[in-house]
Amino acid sequence: MREIVLINITGKDKPGLTARLTEILAQYGITILDMGQAVIHDFLSLGILIEIPDESRSSSVLKDILFAAHKLGISAQFTPIDEDRYEAWVNQQGKERRIITMLGRKITGGQIAQVAQAMADNGLNIEVITRLSGRISLITPETSPKACIQMSVSGRIADADGLRSRLMRISEETGVDISFHVDNLYSQNRRLVVFDMDSTLVQAEVINILADRAGAGERVAQITEAAMSGRMDFKESLTRRVAQLEGLPETVLAEVAAELKLTDGAERVVATLKGLGYKLGIISGGFDYFGKYFQSRLGLDYVFANQLEIVGGKLTGRLKGDIIDGPKKAEILKTIAMVENINLEQTIAVGDGANDLPMLHTAGLGVAFHAKPIVRANADRAISSVGLDGLLYLMGISEREIRQV
């Protein structure tokens, strides 16, 4: 009669350990049904689920494994698995899995406890936990000011919206960003990322800076805030703000562009994604002069933004062409995806304002970046605790992969 046994190996990790143990299994013609390993601070936890054929005696196999483990300075434990229990486990494969990503400057036991309890209360089981961020030095913690772990969970969930709301509350109360999504082919195969520009890719609302130069800063800032928070139609707000720029010299645009600062992590996320072969673009309700400036600086593939009308070297206070508002942003994203022959589920959009929501909802993954409350509450994911390169972790890219690019 065949036997199914789970072997658990723990102890100090060392080269050749797995090779030695599996060599013993090979001598007895053992079939490996499942295998998993994790190493934390050079401490190994290895699990091997084996089927021992009829012609072999389990006592001999396990005795040799135990003897080898003793010589290697590790511990071995054996757990018999009932065949019916094994088959029930096999039948669970193919069921929907979800990925939980926790991202912050640091991650505490309290934060993990609340998330884990939320999973348990919804009948979800945590199967795998992986650290995506780099190791954090206790002497110089500022060299790696991010922490990110990813959990793979399984099980049937009755109220996905309720769980999302609970995770959002945990995020707001504890200060950790939490992403929750179904693990599927598209989530592992994104190909296009588009960014809003103002207050997302760059650390400013450019129109406010231009308005300051035109002596209309306070009036324009009030209109900008109303638009970004969703209290005013974007087209109306943009038209009113641009009108305040009438007479501003064209030379001011170059001066402002040179002074603009990229958002923390922007260059890192762009360089990494370009190195991985992603198509990148800007879709902005801002102005194309600045979009093209950053397209050239960062090597982006696309830029779509509003065009300021300039006559005789001065701004007229009007725009040229169609205004790029929220619905237009979503339409442009669809067009780029079609041109690149990319499924919309393979796209990512990042933005901070209410006019970004149609684009965020259209993309396969919509990310609210340091966004207004109305945007954060309506986006798939949110980054509020770290820089723009936090997007890489939400995409499941590890620190090791980032450094190799």
Q: Can you offer a commentary on this structure?
A:
With 405 residues, this protein is an alpha/beta fold. It folds into three domains: 3-90, Alpha-Beta Plaits (2-Layer Sandwich); 97-183, 2-Layer Sandwich (Alpha-Beta Plaits), CATH 3.30.70; 192-206 and 261-404, 3-Layer(aba) Sandwich (Rossmann fold), CATH 3.40.50. The protein contains 16 helices and 15 strands. The chain has helices at residues 17-27, 58-72, 83-90, 109-121, 160-174, 206-213, 217-228, 234-243, 251-259, 266-275, 288-298, 326-339, 357-362, 373-378, 390-394, 399-404, and strands spanning 3-12, 31-40, 43-52, 74-80, 97-104, 125-131, 147-154, 177-182, 192-195, 279-287, 302-311, 314-320, 347-351, 365-369, 381-383. The strands form three sheets. It has a seven-stranded mixed β-sheet, with helices on both faces. A four-stranded antiparallel β-sheet has the order 2-3-1-4, covered by helices on one side. Strand 11 (302-311) and strand 12 (314-320) form a beta hairpin. Helix 1 (17-27) runs antiparallel to helix 2 (58-72), helix 4 (109-121) packs antiparallel against helix 5 (160-174) and helix 7 runs antiparallel to helix 8. The two termini are 51 Å apart. The mean pLDDT is 90.
Strand order of the largest sheet: 12-11-10-9-13-14-15
**The biggest beta sheet, please?**
7 strands, mixed
Overall number of domains: 3
What is the CATH level 1 assignment of the largest domain? Alpha Beta
The CATH homologous superfamily of the largest domain corresponds to HAD superfamily/HAD-like
Q: Could you tell me the strand content as a percent range?
A: 25-35%
Helix content: 25-40%
Number of H/I helices: 16
CATH names the topology of the largest domain as Rossmann fold
For the residues shown, what is the average pLDDT?
A: 90
The radius of gyration computed from the alpha-carbon positions, rounded to a whole number of angstroms, is 27 Å
Q: In the CATH hierarchy, what is the architecture of the largest domain at level 2? A: 3-Layer(aba) Sandwich
DSSP strand count: 15
Give the N-to-C terminal Cα separation.
51 Å
The general outline is elongated
